[in-house]
Amino acid sequence: MTAQEELNKATVLRFNKEVLENGSINAINELISPEFINYTAPPGTPNGPQGIIDFTINMMHKALTGISVQIHDQVIENDKVVTRKTIYGTQVGSFMGVAPSGEQVAINIIDIITLKNGQYTEHWSMRDIQDMIDKSAKANNR
After folding, report:
1. What CA–CA distance (Å, rounded) separates 109 from 84?
2. Which of 15, 32, 37, 69 has the fewest Cβ atoms nearer than 10 Å?
């Protein structure tokens, strides 16, 4: 692995810890390029750091408490980092159209990140929210 690939891997790990787990807006502003494009963001989400703030801080952190991220695998090639991970948290609010269950939920994700100069420039993601849907249905008698 090249020195740049090591830096890119470390940047993605930092994002998962400081942004997803801890909700750090300072880390968002440091790690997300102003030109950042999130190709799998909800409709109407702005590009750049504000889009990450809107989704992660204003949506995810309001819906899930006690967030932790478990990294299962990472594949790094040149300027891209692919991460397979699970986000855990207790769902206390509606998230991605799913009513709260009050239960700990698992969201399985595969992310593809492009980085330049230590910042995220592009993002694609596949999310599996079935665990959250199942627990919501059970809690809300659906």
Report:
1. 6
2. 37
Task: Provide the edge-to-edge strand list for the sheet that holds 32-38.
Answer: 32-38, 119-128, 104-116, 80-91, 64-77
SS3 112: strand
Residue 42 φ/ψ, nearest 5 degrees: -60, 150
Q: Which DSSP helix (H) or strand (E) runs through 63? A: helix 61-63
Task: Report the C-alpha gap between 48 and 62 in whole angstroms.
Answer: 21
Domains and CATH numbers, the chain: 3-139 (3.10.450.50)
CB 130 within 8 A of CB 124: no
pLDDT in tens, 14-57: 999 999 999 999 999 999 999 999 999 888 999 999 999 999 99
pTM: 0.90
